[in-house]
Design brief:
Helices cover about 75% and strands about 0% of the residues. The protein has 3 helices and no strands. It comes from Roseovarius bejariae.
């Protein structure tokens, strides 16, 4: 798997996990799915950062996101 793709999937999963966590807490439910999604997101992000030479900086995130979306949707 391409590290850029793993990074973008990890970011998207992380956003959904935060939303799921907030929803579970406000409904007084155990955030089991949110916890699993956070772990999966973190694993993807760590793997992507470890496998890309030089890693990612904050300024690279929008460019990487757009590049991956353009590559796989076009």
């Amino acid at each position: 798997m391409d590290p850029d793709l793993a990074f973008v999937i990890g970011l998207v999963l992380g956003v959904f996990a935060i939303l799921s966590l907030v929803s579970a807490i406000t409904d007084a439910r155990a955030p089991r799915v949110a916890a699993f999604t956070i772990v999966a997101s973190g694993a993807l992000l760590v793997w992507a950062i470890a496998n890309k030479p030089g890693g990612y900086s904050i300024n690279d995130i929008p460019d990487t996101f757009l590049r991956v979306v353009a590559k796989y949707l076009a």
